């Protein structure tokens, strides 16, 4: 009797380990040379992959602040925002690591027209470097993480099995004057994302 072929499930996807220490790493790189900033980015930092392993897509559009976003930014409802959508995937996979939507005050970033042009992505050094070109230094980043069922659209885009949840992360970046300068909504697939939080405590 012939041996039955071994039944194998789908290969595990590349894992992302997201640490809160990434924020200082990103800020430090904003003042590095362009060559150093272009050599690697946050996705490489979190996955161990190289730029040649990744497929990146960015899409910009002008948006109006919802009541919720307006309250976070301290702007009137309907104020102009720059909405940026990002997708990055491992070249050997068909689903992105996450779904990212970032909002910046339009009047703030319009001081540098290059920041309104999606064709300048991926920007060496990321958002910290972009904001630095308009005189903004980020002072703190607050992240809120919740878990919820994936929508049908999210499940399809992230390649999630039926019933698998996502982690919804809201990142709010505030500058040294106390002004909110970036609000990002990140949808992370629960089957291949690990969150790591390192808290450094002042010595007695």
Automatic annotation (TrEMBL):
UniProt cross-references to Pfam families, sorted A to Z: UTRA
Gene3D superfamilies: Chorismate lyase-like
Disordered, as annotated region: 1-44
Positions of the UbiC transcription regulator-associated domain: 46-194
Biased composition (Basic and acidic residues): 18-37
UniProt cross-references to PANTHER family, sorted A to Z: GNTR-FAMILY TRANSCRIPTIONAL REGULATOR, MANNOSYL-D-GLYCERATE TRANSPORT/METABOLISM SYSTEM REPRESSOR MNGR-RELATED
Name the UniProt record assigns to this protein: UTRA domain-containing protein
């Amino acid at each position: 009797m012939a041996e039955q072929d071994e039944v194998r499930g789908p290969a595990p996807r590349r894992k992302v380990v997201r640490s809160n220490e990434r924020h200082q790493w990103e800020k430090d790189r904003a003042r590095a040379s362009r060559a150093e900033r272009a050599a690697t980015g946050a996705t490489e930092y979190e996955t161990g992959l190289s730029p040649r392993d990744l497929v990146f897509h960015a899409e910009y559009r002008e948006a109006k602040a919802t009541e919720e976003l307006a309250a976070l930014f301290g702007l009137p409802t309907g104020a102009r925002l720059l909405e940026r959508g990002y997708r990055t995937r491992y070249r050997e996979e068909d689903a992105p690591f996450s779904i990212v939507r970032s909002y910046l005050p339009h009047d703030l970033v319009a001081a540098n027209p290059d920041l309104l042009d999606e064709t300048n992505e991926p920007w060496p050094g990321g958002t910290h470097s972009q904001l630095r070109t308009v005189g903004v230094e980020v002072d703190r980043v607050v992240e809120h993480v919740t878990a919820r069922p994936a929508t049908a659209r999210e499940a399809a885009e992230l390649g999630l099995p039926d019933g698998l949840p996502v982690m919804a992360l809201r990142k709010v970046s505030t500058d040294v004057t106390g002004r909110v300068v970036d609000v990002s909504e990140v949808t992370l697939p629960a089957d291949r994302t690990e969150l790591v939080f390192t808290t450094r405590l002042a010595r007695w």
